[in-house]
Structure prediction request, 504 residues.
Amino acid sequence: MESTQPQQQQQQGPKKRGRKPKPKDEKEQQQQQSAGKMKEGKKAQQPSVDEKYTQWKSLVPVLYDWLANHNLVWPSLSCRWGPQLEQATYKNRQRLYLSEQASTDGSVPNTLVIANGEVVKPRVAAAEHISQFNEEARSPFVKKYKTIIHPGEVNRIRELPQNSKIVATHTDSPDVLIWDVETQANRHAVLGATHSHPDLILTGHQDNAEFALAMCPTEPYVLSGGKDKSVVLWSIQDHITTTATDPAKSPGSGGSIIKQNKAGEGNNKAADGPSVGPRGVFCGHEDTVEDVTFCPSSAQEFCSVGDDSCLILWDARVGTSPAVKVEKAHNADLHCVDWNPHDDNLILTGSADHTVRLFDRRNLTSDGVGSPIYTFEGHNAAVLCVQWSPDKSSVFGSSAEDGLLNIWDYDKVGKKVEHAPRSPSAPAGLFFQHAGHRDKVVDFHWNASDPWTIVSVSDDCDSTGGGGTLQIWRMSDLIYRPEDEVLAELEKFKSHIISCATKP
Prediction:
């Protein structure tokens, strides 16, 4: 793998999400110019990003059980939870995987960062403390543990469920890189430092594969999509030396999941590490594949979305052609997809048309085009990431270029809430909106070890001229718990306050 590619990328300026602009005809350009002028007039009446942020920060003690804000000097495009390391009385320690892009002058290289996150337990943090943070400072709850110098920008990080100290990364190349983050050496991110060598390289794409990346929940399989319009499937089973699942308290034990080549063995990429070819290359998209995901119950079934506005379901048992192809799943490019871990029939998609759609695999199309169960409208810019909650089957999150991370519950769609009537302007199903980021929220991840705790990251280049923001947060449980339970607690609290006030 050549290390010159990322440097060339930097000279061209900051990289946007992997989508190329579509050619526009003259009429469409005139319509967009007219719409742009109308938007400018509306913007003059709307609060600025800083005003919205100030308003949000004032509400943090009310809306959140806990929040940590971590400033990143350089932009990050991905964040993931790793294994839980330690449980204590008031907080847990857990691995975090994130990235930082290289500095524009090349003095700081691209890095994959392994950090230890201190996750405060529910109902521990004092309300007046969680909003007292400095936006320009690094959080004491996020401590860097190890730095891996990455060959190119880290566009995407995904962890292996069978052993979450193993992660895969996407950069601006056709290859997928596999890292054992515990055995990798800790490196100093300084000028001129050579990049770290991945433990395994997955080959098979014919063009750059930048964003679409997934790990299988049931087998050590990896899935990727790229600019070559293909979806590629690998198994790293042959390179596994141990199949032990994550040790609960000592993630460094159990040996490496990657079999190392002996001296003289290997291939033409021996200098960079061993490589493995694909189990299958699946063709059916007509443009860049933007995201992929496995069926939660099968390593042989998966789906993909792309810039061709298609959602495709694949079954490796029957061939490399689409099992089901949904044309016009959205009215624009599709950026993200996630399969419900609790119900194999439900699939989420997010798009440049600002919407999230929910599909039932048993009834995907109508008259040849996508027929979603429901379309969720709560963003005013392209949706970049969707993910189901690991805890509640009807809850999911979506993040977008509008700087918002919305939390939805499709069970609430169409239901009347007597005690807290929904505002007429509030989108159906939306019950929480995280507005702590001031720029596009490029990735987020629910914490399977600590339900309702989320890590999210924003690329702040457009709003602050550089850097990024990593936030770890948990909404107040009064927001998502059953209504009768919450009302009973509030009534008990009210009685307590009254009794305290009447004491002499």
Observations:
- The longest strand covers residues 91-100.
- The radius of gyration is 23 Å.
- Residues 175 and 487 are 53 Å apart (CA to CA).
- Helices lie at 4-11, 26-45, 49-63, 127-130, 461-464, 477-480, 483-502.
